[in-house]
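QA checklist item 7 of 12: single-chain prediction sanity check.
[x] sequence parsed
[x] length recorded as 134
[x] structure emitted
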Amino acid sequence: MKELHPDRHTSKAKDEQDVIHEQASQMTHAYGILSDPHDRSLHLLELHDHPFQDDTKVDMATLAFVMEIREQVDEASQETLKILSMENKRRIEETCSVIGRAFEEDNLEQAVLATAKLQYWNRIEESIRNNTTE
């Protein structure tokens, strides 16, 4: 990535700088996808010709659990939000492990379902951050 930094190429021709800038932009975009577990999973599903649909159905127990947690977040004290965040981060880690195993086993249906759950956990984490006043 350092090789593509614009400051290293100020003496080059404009067209070369444009090419380097485009490569740096692509590299930054790729890094963003790969560094976010949900985006990475979406990308891998695309690569496997199995694109994720936002209307992917998860089981009713998961949906009920998500609703329960959202209610807890809305009513939580700052201290409780910290606890809820730690619990949610654990769920995120576990779900990422499930996604990893699903791809290793070429079980794309399981990868899709786990990606849908990860999306719920990420939204809960966002809600917790939005309710935190520190």
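[x] summary fact logged: The two ends are 34 Å apart (CA to CA).
[ ] second reviewer sign-off
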